[in-house]
Specification:
- Two copies of one chain form a homodimer.
- With 519 residues, chain A is mostly helical.
- In chain A, 43% of the residues lie in helices and 6% in strands.
- The first copy, chain A, contains 21 helices and ten strands.
- In chain A, the strands form five sheets. In chain A, strands 1-2 form a two-stranded antiparallel sheet. Chain A has a two-stranded antiparallel sheet with strand order 3-10.
- The radius of gyration of chain A is 23 Å and the shape is globular.
- About 1% of the residues of chain A have low confidence.
- Chains A, B: It comes from Roseomonas alba.
- Chains A, B: This is Heme peroxidase.
- Chains A, B: Pfam families: An_peroxidase.
């Protein structure tokens, strides 16, 4: 069979499975079970609390769990030298043929929700270990209260605080304009924005009052948060018309039930489907987890916290309707979002390609963050790259060419580490060849799949006796079923939807097509 | 077949199963699976946070989960009238033919570890929702630090603070003798002892500095805590000889791993085996839970917190080597324990019968606590008794005689509630006939089995990748395997073990023997 024919048949089978709901469900369950089954399930015996198993290590979730116990790796090259593996040669970005910038935009917003290493204390986390949209709702009940409007007035029940800018609804500003004073004294309980250096007042004036310390990171993360804020308030307003007897508290809580699950649906059915190399769509069928052996309490790991540093996905500059923005101007600055509005911001993200994830492709402006990743792995004493290949059911690399087919990357690894067994976790992960039809390298793809499925589908809102109309209302349950993609939510929440499809996958991408674009 | 012959065969089968380890394991798994499978598994959709399902209700474990949603029961008799159901007629206790007082002693110490309703706020709990011996080790890491000796000196690593009284080791006193000042400033972080009224100085002088607010409740609970304190320090001292290179922290943590699991083994193999009406012994085989569908995160329920109020088990006075002690003198007073020492205290508990659990059998001194239980159910808006029978797979009672075969109890229920469907949860639970060969009534036995098995065997120390010699050391793992009963631990920790067997079951008890004593 020719490659061309095989690719066509492969695609046809995917379409068939997609169209046949029952088979799609069975196939999803099989894929998810196989992915999660590639390694040991939770509870993990170790955490960053101690080098051995103990009660506090097994229960104190302000530490991070670990897939493998700590070791001292024998070769630790200077991070400045490791930069040779990450830096774009001649500053030239390799551009992805599959992903748009909506992919890194969503990845960052998603992972900032549950992967939050404490700065300067990389063995600790502020994570709730759940996909709970704490970026929108706050990390604690006290933060949630500060972000809520709290009104028993009809039409204003159950809302999050917001600010109208013409027809555009945004989160409130964190600071009173032109000052460093909070715009609302209740915001004192919020986590301060995480920034590397003091910001000029003009940038401070654009920051939003939101649930996380990181959702102001870029206009992309702020745009995601704005989208779900609008969706929350839209849903709350509709619930009030359906249930005029409900008080502020109940409208808020039920709207939150719905929005968190809409978000998880998008995680699986939009985001993960973009990541997988499979030509059929996985479905967020909660029942897959109800009787699964891997359904155990979530606990983010040191490895998961580190492997999600996908800075290479960012191009050197972001194309924006107001003109290209260099990366440095895109950090902790919501001015670009405010200038063009939500639909134009999503359209900008979806209409430009992301860069490829992998070695020799990190923008110069972000190289210092790669240094931190290398050091974070050492502080947490992560086992070498090959140990993780074995732990996740792969053969260890016996030669540098088994990590990367690119001779320059293999030579850099050889130069840095000398022996494939000495390659460190993070550099090895990023140096690997990307999997055909996926934006991710092989071990990274496998590790993401394990932690994503085994921690998204265990959400209590998806559990067997909660996943029903009583929890979400019949209207909300139907809305959940009808929502799969970011574009579904955007269309409900902007005055005018533009022509750009809101997709993480580029329009001309074809799975398995040898004539088409490749990752 | 005659009842006599059937009983003999039943007993013989039990002995056979006990002697045949493989069958015993299979039978244990079947019994546990059947028990837990009688009702819906976790996560529960409801908690005491709200009347409907919501994110904070599903995640904030300072509230209690619920098996059934809240309702307003139609008939709420004055608690003073409900006392007719609980009070001992003519003050005469019905004495158990199966249980010794070691049974209520252990039950109280065990449940104070994870069922801790906040006084005056009965929808809230301070529980960690695990069997973690927090009574011994403290409820928080800061409390644990206050209770530890913290010494790097050889021979003193990994110990809990203690005080020698001749050859007897006890927890330190909480207060400096004759004062209300703490004996150690670090004890300020401990939870204050939970007492109904101010105690005389002589009693304050006897209270121990311990992990919980309730382990000073009676000399029985203090004796349990003393036993496990001695076992911890004994194990820590031995670990130091095996691992002279371990520091204070590691010796402490590994000793704690071992002691928590010794405790859980005793919960299943001593305590639960006393409760079950089955003639064969259940084994604490952790693998039963590894692949079980009911293995979901623990969360104590409002119902579980209430059904464990077993005050009827207490006789009117406690026989003690120094003379009978009326119940009022047995509360928040460790003087009787200090006077006779640990072995004599255990012997006293094990050599006197408990009272029967059930209606018309609460000591006068404890009747006011039954009032609180009735009110606690109403504050938490528990569904009526019959709703719980249905939720746990039983037929609803259609007649008062289906609750109790005792005409006086049935008549009292009729007088209080008029209709079997109106009987409240707590009175109904306690009014039922006891199950043949068990100290517990039927619905109570079933509800205890569900929550006990599904929350004890999910302990992270028993989980698939933790339950091994690396966690406990080979010596500790062997010690765990060799320990099944309180007497095993006591024999290792007293200067002189007396002749009284340390048993919860009376020596002349025979299962299913119609000629023998009955519960």
């Amino acid at each position: 069979m020719s490659d061309w024919l095989e690719a066509r048949l492969f695609r046809a089978a995917g379409n068939l499975i997609d169209g046949w709901a029952w088979l799609s469900g069975e196939a999803s369950a099989a894929v998810i079970g196989k992915a999660v089954g590639s390694t040991r399930n939770r509870p993990h015996p170790w955490s960053s609390f101690s080098d051995y198993t103990c009660w506090q290590g097994l229960t104190d979730r302000s530490y991070l769990a670990r897939h493998l116990p700590p070791v001292d790796v024998p070769v630790q090259p200077d991070p400045e030298r490791v930069r040779a593996l990450f830096a774009r040669p001649d500053g030239e970005a390799q551009i992805s043929r599959k992903s748009t910038c909506l992919f890194p935009a969503f990845a960052q917003y998603l992972t900032d929700g549950f992967l939050r290493t404490v700065p300067g204390q990389v063995d600790r986390t502020t994570s709730n270990h759940e996909i709970d949209l704490c970026t929108l709702y706050g990390r604690t009940p006290a933060q949630t209260r500060a972000l809520r409007l709290k009104s028993e007035e009809a039409g204003r029940r159950g809302l999050l605080k917001s600010r109208m800018d013409g027809a555009e609804e945004f989160p409130p500003f964190l600071y009173a304009t032109g000052t460093k004073a909070l715009s609302d004294p209740e915001f004192a309980i919020l986590d301060a924005p995480l920034v590397d250096e003091a910001l000029p007042q003009a940038q401070l004036d654009t920051l939003f009052a939101i649930g996380g310390d990181r959702a102001n990171s870029t206009p992309f993360t702020a745009m995601m948060n704005t989208l779900f804020l609008r969706e929350h308030n839209r849903i709350a307003r509709h619930l009030q018309t359906l249930h005029p007897d409900w008080n502020d508290e109940r409208v808020f809580q039920v709207a939150r039930n719905i929005v968190i699950v809409l978000f998880i649906k998008i995680v699986v059915e939009h985001y993960i489907n973009h990541i997988t190399p499979m030509p059929f769509s996985l479905r967020a069928d909660p029942s897959v987890a109800w009787h699964a052996e891997w359904n155990r309490p979530n606990w983010m790991t040191v490895e998961f916290s580190l492997l999600y540093r996908w800075h290479a996905l960012m191009p050197d500059a972001i194309a924006w309707p107001t003109g290209d923005i260099p990366l440095r101007g895109f950090i902790a600055n919501n001015a670009p979002l405010l200038a063009v509005g939500l639909d134009a911001a999503f359209s900008a993200a979806a209409s430009q390609p992301a860069a490829k994830l992998g070695a020799r492709n990190t923008a110069a402006a972000l190289l210092h963050i790669e240094d931190r990743a290398v050091l974070q792995a050492r502080t947490n004493r992560l086992a070498p790259y090959n140990a993780y290949r074995v732990a996740f059911g792969m053969e260890p690399a016996r030669d540098f060419s088994e990590i990367s087919s690119n001779p320059q990357i293999a030579a850099t690894l050889q130069d840095l580490y000398g022996d494939p067994d000495h390659v460190e976790f993070y550099p090895g992960l990023m140096a690997e060849d990307r999997v055909k039809d996926s934006p991710l390298p092989g071990l990274l793809l496998r590790m993401v799949a394990v932690d994503a499925f085994s921690q998204a589908l265990t959400n209590p809102l998806l559990s067997e006796h909660v996943w029903n109309e009583a929890t979400f209302t019949p209207w909300g349950f139907d809305l959940i079923k009808r929502t799969s993609k970011l574009g579904d939510v955007l269309a409900r929440n902007v005055p005018h939807r533009g022509p750009t499809p809101v997709e993480m996958t580029q329009a001309d991408w074809r799975y398995g097509d040898p004539d088409g674009p490749v990752a």
